[in-house]
């Protein structure tokens, strides 16, 4: 896996591309979060709404702004740092998967797989189409990566077993012999 072949399946690269996109989105959200902390949160969100030309009279938008405005700054800062952590993780996973590095496959299996129980809990707690789609996609990603990593490891093991033994030279006699 460390040296991609032209006919390799694109699964690792596709997953890596999504991870890179998620990392960039998390990075943008983290930067936005810290920019909001530098001024009044409610006012900053209202400016962002105007800048993005969203409907300023939307009930959902007003609810979100009210909720975020009421969150303590320390908690917003913690969420911002968490967002940067996830951005870094997604960017590392994505880069490694796009470059077909084996460590990235293992890292993605562990990181994504460790969140599946929490996602399942959230789905059971309150069923939501988006939550179900995210859960199914993450399970599919983990299953695919485990399958491909196992398949790759098995192929390496078989190639080592079937490798032709190399002749060795007997230094004292100057003859060549096949190892036992």
What's the layout of helices and strands?
Layout: H1 11-37, H2 41-51, H3 59-70, H4 73-98, H5 102-125, H6 129-161, E1 168-170, E2 175-177
Antiparallel strand pairs: 1-2
Describe this structure in words.
- The chain is mainly alpha-helical and 180 residues long.
- The chain has two domains: 1-100; 101-163.
- Helices cover 74% and strands 3% of the residues.
- The protein is built from six helices and two strands.
- The protein has helices spanning 11-37, 41-51, 59-70, 73-98, 102-125, 129-161, and strands at residues 168-170, 175-177.
- Strand 1 and strand 2 form a beta hairpin.
- Helix 1 packs antiparallel against helix 4 (73-98).
- The longest helix is centred in the C-terminal third of the chain and has 33 residues, at 129-161.
- The model has no long low-confidence stretch (mean pLDDT 80).
Quickly describe the structure:
The chain has 180 residues and is mainly alpha-helical.
Shape verdict: elongated
What spatial order of strands do you see in the largest sheet? 1-2
Query: How many DSSP-defined strands?
Result: 2
Radius of gyration: 25 Å
Poorly predicted regions are: none
Order of helices and strands: HHHHHHEE
Please state the structural category: mainly alpha
What is the CA-CA span between the terminal residues? 31 Å
Instruction: Give the count of structural domains.
Output: 2
Strand content: under 5%
DSSP helical segment count: 6
Mean pLDDT: 80
Helix % is: over 70%
Largest sheet: 2 strands, antiparallel
